[in-house]
Amino acid sequence: MNLHEYQARELLRRAGIPVPPDGVATTPREAKQVAERLGAGKVVVKAQVHAGGRGKAGGVKLADSPEEAERTAAKILGMKIKGLTVHTVLLAPAAEIASEAYVGVIVDRASQSPVFMVSPAGGIDIEEVAATTPEKIFRARVDARYGLLPHQALGLAFRLYHDVGPARQAADILQKLYRAFVDAGASLAEINPLVRTPRGEIVALDAKIVVDDSELDRHPEIAALRDPTAEEPSEVQAREANLTYIRLEGDVGCVVNGAGLAMATMDLVKYYGGEPANFLDIGGSSNPEKVVNALKIITADQDVKAILFNIFGGITRCDDVANGIVAATRQFTVDRPIVIRLTGTNEQEAVEILNGVGMKALTDMDEAVKQAVGLAKGAAAA
Amino acid sequence: MSVFVDGNTRLVVQGITGRDGSFHAKQMMAYGTRVVAGVTPGKGGQTFQDTVPIFNTVAEAAAQTGANTSVIYVPAKFAADAIFEAADAGVGLVVCITEGVPVLDMTRVSPYVKERGARLIGPNCPGLITPGVAKVGIIPGQICTPGPIGVVSRSGTLTYEVVYQLTRAGMGQTTCVGIGGDPIIGTSFIDCLEAFQADPATKAVVMIGEIGGTDEQQAAEFVRTRMTKPVVGFIAGQTAPPGRRMGHAGAIISGSSGTAAEKMAAFEHAGIAVMQRPADVVPLLKERR
Predict the structure, then answer these.
(1) What is the CATH architecture assignment of A232-381?
(2) Taking residues B67-94, what's their average pLDDT?
(3) Beta strands A338-344 and B231-236, pairing class
(4) Catalytic residue among A6, A100, A102, A347, which?
(5) What are the C-alpha distances in Å from A51 to residues A98, A108, A298, B209?
(6) Is A199 on the interface with B (CB under 8 A)?
(7) Which fold has domain A22-93?
(8) pLDDT of B214-228, one tens digit each?
(9) Which residues contact A93 (CB under 8 A, 6 or more apart)?
(10) Is B269 one of the annotated active-site residues of the chain?
(11) Which residues of A255-283 are buried (b: 16+ CB within 10 A; e: fewer)?
């Protein structure tokens, strides 16, 4: 789960990291009031969306006065950045900057450990730094059982600042960042830029935190930060129904059990010349209600021209899935053709259930995908 | 012959009285796996299905029954401790089926298990099966058949699909290992490839990867430099959008890294025959016999 910048700033502030004052607004009028309260002359107005490249998209602007902040917020609120509508802006005093650095900690898959990355080339996308000037990135692997060791923190800090004074300040920030990272159950926490002001203070100007979804159960205060308005509504609906759903651009709706098979099914749709409309995993233990919810979500997507079920029964029972399909067609009109492939646990029972309502089931994945692609194309041509 | 699981496997089921644990314990017993103990704290002294003794701790279970392998079906928030407990009890192979184990837990678990000389498979995996001999986990036994092909995969049902294709074509399996779909897992592709290369009964290997991370690229390099047996590979997620987690916690393209195209190119460079779809597994293996 991604946190908004204003939420991440608050977590860092609570961890004791110096973060300049700020405020959020959801209307231009509120933006003006926040700018007045901040008291500073010049403020920065920043779109709060879960997308990178906000600046390039015009979602980050300076304003010289509260009045201008109001006008700027009016432009940014409602703007779409990478398909996501901006509902909230953050306002903060424009900072004086002597130098900018990057500091971040991620869970690194290869070393199976948290890894810190710091760079004196801050303020720009760290992936860009990694691609163009990798020698400007310095890393330290953390043994999660002991945490970030003081010498590691100071060693990294000296990569950013030559003098011991600022280096000690930065080392302290790195320790607090690691604490915030662990306490939030994050898989990534970064400050970019970490700024040194002309007066020698070191402050965090922008923050990004990504929380491991598996941690949300034991961090209810973090889970409460989820902003459903910042996500695709159908994906929110799916999550509430315990389905994993990702909407794509195509016209073949896919309902599959298991993430790997779901991806392979989408790939096979493409292989046979179609375009998958979505990723949808109904999960391991099946119950008919999940299938009903899956069909509700898929049929709500008007781009879908044909619906493909691909079920390999293991823990998932084919008869549960068949019962779900029948229940769905009784609860609402499914006005798109359905192609069903199922094999494995209780396959025979499932076939009987489907035949009982005049539906057919296939056993071969390739055959089912070919049919679904053909039906979608036929519907598109009609 | 086989890898990791064989006729000497003596299994303890952690979470044997839970919904998933009891269901799959029965399935494993029915398949012929030697389930020698179960563990559920507070239920020590009882028996499961009138035959399997239940203990309060893995240490007791291992001491009294000689269990050398553990399979874990406990809820995600208890899974890390269940793995620590199995490793502390001296169990050599620990298979964690549980999905949703926090990745920061795994950063502590992984080095701990390794330092104690145990092998962890998973978490978030279907386990493994040596057809006709023993299964540890949840892979449906009826789709497998004994034979010369080793299978290793990050997925569950996609593995079943490929194994089903093999079985229908009369190509049996030595062992099928599901290594799990999480970002941090105990046993890698390379560990399995190394074991299959060393196993005399395994004549060819099928490797099923997916988007996210670089494990497949490293595995490809291992195949290129260290393996003499033919390898056939598949990568799921060619149509996956970047930056989105495709169901598995580890299946995500970060920036431009971890794409299917990159992994398939690494396979080709290593001389691994690349399947475009699951049904390609049989013809590609036949070509390489």
Answers:
(1) 3-Layer(aba) Sandwich (3.40)
(2) 97
(3) unpaired
(4) A102
(5) 27, 22, 25, 28
(6) no
(7) Dna Ligase; domain 1 (3.30.1490)
(8) 999 999 999 999 999
(9) A20, A21, A38, A40, A42, A43, A44
(10) no
(11) bbbbbbbbbbbbbbbbbeebbbbbbbbbb
